[in-house]
Amino acid sequence: MILQQLDSYFLLALSILSLVTAVPAPDPNGDREISVYIVPGNRTFPEGIARQKNSPYFYVGSVTTGDIYRGSVYEKHLVHFITGSTHGLTNAVGMKIDCEDRLYVAGGASGTLFAFDLHTKKLLHRFSNGFGLDANATLLNDLDIDEAGNVYITDSIRPTVFRVGASEVNRPTVDLALEKWTDLTGTMGPGGNGIVVTEDQRHLLVANVYAGEIWRVVISSRKVDKVDLGGTGIGGPDGLLIRDNILYSVNAFQEIGQFIRVIEMRPGYLSGTQVRNITSELFERPSTVAFDGNDLLVVNFQYGVVIPVLPFTVVRVPIGG
Ligand SMILES: *[C@@H]1O[C@H](CO)[C@@H](O)[C@H](O)[C@H]1NC(C)=O
Ligand SMILES: *[C@@H]1O[C@H](CO)[C@@H](O)[C@H](O)[C@H]1NC(C)=O
Ligand SMILES: *[C@@H]1O[C@H](CO)[C@@H](O)[C@H](O)[C@H]1NC(C)=O
């Protein structure tokens, strides 16, 4: 049963996640130089990762159980943090943290976006798109949050970008509807995966993992256009990050190689040039990444692997360049 579920997640899932860490974490005499962090469990398949600002913490979520684990950049071992199934979260995919330390988790096949308070571990909200009870009807994969607190969510099955408005997050009601924000039928189509809000706060860049494409959505007009990458392939783009208009795109497909594409975006974000790859012998089919200062924290999901290499890990690699 779990294997069958896993197969379908592996076919469809993958996302990316991250959190920009502008302020370095205070150092409690720990070891910032740890390059491999250990995720508990032998069927965990950690997919999403988010770095909490102004703290030493980062989080990953299990695709197979929905459990959330917390790591410290100074400690080798992550610890169990939230039991997802208590809240109906059994399939944790992409995740990010807003400026008030709310953790948002894309709930995959549940069609639900979960929001937790990281200080109390309390479930704050479940935003449902209404398709979670039908088999293979939805797969909420990844998300990003703009500076105003609006949340944009991709779906790998439904050609839709969903959205949660910033004001909704402060409502007392736990269970709320997830707004169908932009229909990608006839443009990007299905396959939505990693997503970033550009630094000008005016665009979204969305990965289509199946087509190997990046698409741009203008937030004000919801206009959808394909990004011109100069005709060179980018593999299957899973997680995305952006900083200083450089886009980092994690390749999901092992047969193409284990690397993160580094793409210089031109003004307007309608085109970009691949300038280099980031790779490491520590990669085990990674799904997504988070910034930690001048490093990337890369989560080794082990996409599509039936007998995983244990333990599951998060690895630190320098951004370099
Ligand atoms: C859902 O997708 C999986 C994987 O593609 C497939 O094996 C399964 O039969 C599908 N289930 C339904 C009800 O369509
Ligand atoms: C996986 O974990 C279970 C439960 O802790 C344990 O019984 C089993 O031996 C482990 N399997 C492997 C391959 O480590
Ligand atoms: C990145 O790696 C891929 C796969 O090995 C390769 O095809 C591509 O040319 C590399 N890109 C750059 C800019 O080096």
UniProtKB/TrEMBL annotation:
Instruction: Name the keywords, alphabetized.
Output: Signal
Matching InterPro entries: 6-blade_b-propeller_TolB-like (IPR011042), SGL (IPR013658)
Q: What is this protein called?
A: NHL repeat-containing protein
- What is the source species? Tuber magnatum
Tell me where in this chain the SMP-30/Gluconolactonase/LRE-like region domain is found.
Answer: 67-296
**A Pfam family assignment:** SGL
Q: Does the keyword Aminoacyl-tRNA synthetase apply?
A: no
Signal peptide, first to last residue: 1-22
